[in-house]
Amino acid sequence: MAAPAPVKKVPIHLQSAQNRLYIKRGHVVNHDSMQQADVYIEDGVIKYVGSGADFVVPGGCRQIDATGKMIIPGGIDPHTHFQLEFGGAVSVDDFYRGTKAAVAGGTTTILDFVLPNKGQSLLEAYDEWRQRADPKVVCDYGLHVGITWWSKSVSDEMKILCEERGVNSFKVFMAYKGTYMLTDNELYEVFERCKELGAVAQVHAENGDLIAKNVQKLLASGVTGPEGHELSRTEEIEAEATNRACVIAHQAKCPLYVVHVMSKSAGIEVARARRRYNGVGIFGETLAAALGTDGRNYTHKCWHHAAAHVLSPPLRPDPETPEFLMKLLAQDDLQTTGSDNCTFNKEQKELGKNDFSKIPNGVNGVEDRMSVVWEKGVQTGLIDPQRFVAITSTNAAKIFNLYPRKGCIVAGSDADIVIWDPKATRTISAKTHHQAVDFNIFEGLTCHGVPEFVIVHGRVCLENETFRVAEGQGHFLETPTHPPYVYDSLNGFNNHTDENGARNGLRSLDLNQKSHDI
Ligand code: URP
Ligand code: ZN
Ligand code: ZN
Ligand code: ZN
Asked: Which is the closest atom of ligand 1 to the Cα of 171?
């Protein structure tokens, strides 16, 4: 018999240092509490949160002093598109660079979108995304699936995705005529199916028919530059579709999550729908891009600068938009902040050099989202640190049924933790960011709020700007259907019959908006 292979001995103190971590004297901020506390982590899980008085720190355990810092749940970015083929180009941040940049900025979970081609099996597309992502991700990730065409087989596959593949959310498009756009009738059927399955329906709300008309008109009149992008899909194009989507979802008795709310007008439609339906059933997400910059960039004298800001729905030229959207987040008219990170380099954007409608859509944000939201929200006094945690992490965890495993710092949760220095500042630049893309839409913005340590599943991955990440160290997250936060209080939504609701809601919506905004 062959001699057994020699056992490789790992010194005890090294084992402990790897698996155990004690963070002391920080301010633990959850969405509903803030306390001075210590946090003990073992094997990737939070084991203890408390004063430390009654806790015996195991010997050999690494200790981090967080005095003067906040200990917050790692960010959850509910909206990314890594290595997505879109408009004839593949987005340059792949699942490695994208998740690495996420971690650099304090985000420890991302949710990406499987977008099947027209006619393609949803399961096949899902497998492709898993094959792309699993070997590369450095943080945990989940998948939404786009319903980009509609048939009985798509409906059947939605069930399989929910029951056997860990998917609990589906996005429909009212825009991108000829590729992803569905009709109102199809929207209704998808929403009905989502309701049956206990899944979260998501919508990209822009009127795709009107956009197609406007694009034709603008090009015919000689408007070919990036400014045409916003002109072809103005606020009312977004607001009309937002209201229509909310009505269709309500008719189908299905809760709805409106992704990337980019304008005051669309934000007001989400707020009105929430009031009309008694505060349940409708959820809204806005983007770091919408909070940190604006649509005046589309008329920038440099074509590349302007084109780098092209995403859909567009940024708005009204410079009051970012503050308005932050106020909607502050008063729970919107619930989450995503990045919609979908990055294309200069030469890829040039596909639309002579025709703005051919500029690949998308911007950066996965790395800077946390700092931008802190700067524009907490630093300005519009929100407090607890609301910051809610809109960058907890609410996404609740809506997509990852809570309390993700989105909070309590015993039993995954040790996805950021030690956040609220006083430190950093200035954003494409020269120093970790993303693959050659442009940063927040260039030159100085943000308070810097992640000092980022701990992913108990591993210290970022420590004073030094990375220790391994490709593929993240895991796929199965998201169960019927998230209680979305589905448990739907009575008022389903039984609602009060036609005055919209008017009543409007009266209590006080954001100092000018009348023409409504
Ligand atoms: O411009 C954008 N948003 N690109 C990504 C696709 C989408 O609609 O989310
Ligand atoms: Zn979209
Ligand atoms: Zn330039
Ligand atoms: Zn998107």
From this structure: 9
